[in-house]
Structures are given as structure tokens and as C-alpha cells.
Write a structure and sequence with these properties.
Blueprint lengths: L9 E6 L8 E2 L3 E15 L8 E15 L4 H9 L5 E14 L4 E3 L6 E9 L7 E2 L8 E5 L4 E4 L7 E16 L13 E9 L2 E16 L11 E7 L7 E4 L3
Parallel strand pairs: 8-9
Antiparallel strand pairs: 1-2, 1-12, 3-4, 4-14, 5-11, 6-10, 7-11, 9-10, 12-13, 13-14, 13-15
């Protein structure tokens, strides 16, 4: 019986940098592309078409589109930094407040991080931030206490505040630092697909990612794209391609 493949398959990655490494699966996989390409050199003589071809350098590149976010996967396979820490930076968007006695205090004032602006709730007018002594539609912000100070003319006015704050108990956070040139995590990649009880499996022994794309779209899910290339391991092997026919 002939062998066919259908669907996205499954892609795994396992860091070659961390020991021991926790394997990660690219969740909600939308598609995987693996390209194996060589350069060629043509030898011409008196005729229009070449009389010989020589194969030159080769490369294996891949791309995976997946919808499930995983901090461990991003860190181990792309950033290659310290393991993600517990906790996360969160954003309060358009938090409704009413100016009273010239001030507004952020709900998450005890873990407040950075001001992201103030707007008038009624029509979206943007308030201007100043250092102190605000007038009209101006405000100052103490980013240590999460307290916003307005001019007295704004008392009783409904505003929307935006800011970041920390949540030390939930989520994961990757601290992205500036690394020396040449530093990058390497990983083992395993792609497998099964259709009509017949399986195809490609193992790439050593891979490195060159690009991670996060692109949002109106009325659609965010599908990160992960680009990578394979290279020879210490034994001068690229990997294996297995199938049942």
C-alpha cells in the first residue's frame, strides 16, 4: 500500500544547551515546513544547456507555525537564557477611575511599575504628563506609589489609566539580556506525522533558530512563527528521515 501523509504532524524540540533538558512540544501546531536545498554549478560548452552539473553547499531550513504559547519553549529554543522565572509583568488597560481630591490611585499600586498614559473616559482625550504642578488636562505620576495627581479642575472627572504592574505568583517571565555575538541555544528537533497507520519521522540532530515572529491580526488568533536551520553535529551527521515505504 502506498504511503501518504496528512495534517500538520507533531514537532518536538529539546535543548542541547541545558542539562538536563526538558523536551517541549510545539502546541496547537498549524504547519511545519522543512526545506533541504543545495547550490549547483553548471558547466557549459558550445551548447545552450549545461553538459555537467556539480552540487555545491547545502542547507536545511525549517519553519513552524504554532498557536500555543509556552515560555519554556521560547526560552530553551530561541533565547537560551536563564530558565523563566515565576511571575510576570501585566498591563492594566483603561482602568476606570474618578479624580478625587486631585488624585487617582491605581488598583495595583503596591506592585506598580510604569505609567502608560491617561485618557478622558468620555471622549478619549489624552492627558499630558508633567513632572509636577499640572494645569488643565495634565497629570503627574509617582511610579513608586502608583498615585496620579491632577489639577483641581479635574475633580469628579472620569478617567482611564493605563500602566504595567508585576504579578509575582502567576505566569512565567523571560528576562531578555544582550548577549555576546555568536551566543545562541542549539536544540534537537523531531518532526513526526502519522496517516493511515503509517508514520514519517525526521530527526535533526543540531538546530539553531534565527527568527521568532509574533504577529497579531484583527478577529484572528496569534500564530507565532519559528524559523530554524539545521547543521552537522559533532559526528558530522545532520539527522535521519524515516518512513514505512
Amino acid at each position: 500500500m502506498s504511503m501518504y501523509q496528512f495534517g500538520t504532524g507533531v514537532l518536538y524540540g529539546r535543548s542541547l544547551t541545558n542539562t538536563p533538558a526538558t523536551p517541549v512540544r510545539f502546541g496547537a501546531l498549524q504547519g511545519v515546513t522543512v526545506d533541504i536545498a543545495f547550490t549547483t554549478k553548471e558547466l557549459y560548452s558550445a551548447y545552450q544547456f549545461p553538459i555537467a552539473l556539480g552540487r555545491g553547499t547545502g542547507k536545511i531550513t525549517g519553519k513552524a507555525d504554532f498557536a500555543q504559547f509556552n515560555a519554556q519553549a521560547f526560552n530553551d529554543l530561541f533565547f537560551g537564557l536563564s530558565n523563566p522565572a515565576t511571575g510576570e509583568t501585566k498591563t492594566a488597560q483603561s482602568e476606570a477611575k474618578t479624580v478625587s481630591a486631585n488624585i487617582v490611585t491605581a488598583t495595583n499600586n503596591t506592585t506598580y511599575l510604569q505609567d502608560l498614559g491617561v485618557t478622558l473616559a468620555s471622549d478619549g482625550t489624552v492627558f499630558t504628563r508633567v513632572t509636577a504642578n499640572s494645569i488643565g488636562q495634565q497629570y503627574s505620576c509617582n511610579e513608586t506609589t502608583g498615585v496620579y495627581t491632577f489639577n483641581s479642575t479635574q475633580n469628579g472627572v472620569a478617567v482611564l489609566i493605563n500602566y504595567t504592574y508585576s504579578d509575582a505568583s502567576n505566569g512565567k517571565k523571560i528576562s531578555i539580556s544582550n548577549q555576546l555575538l555568536g551566543n545562541a541555544p542549539t536544540f534537537l528537533a523531531v518532526f513526526t506525522n502519522t496517516f493511515q497507520s503509517k508514520q514519517l519521522t525526521m530527526v535533526l540532530n543540531s538546530c539553531m533558530s534565527s527568527k521568532l515572529t509574533l504577529a497579531t491580526k484583527l478577529e484572528d488568533f496569534t500564530i507565532p512563527s519559528f524559523d530554524f536551520s539545521a547543521f552537522a553535529d559533532s559526528g558530522n551527521n545532520l539527522g535521519t528521515l524515516s518512513m514505512e515505504e
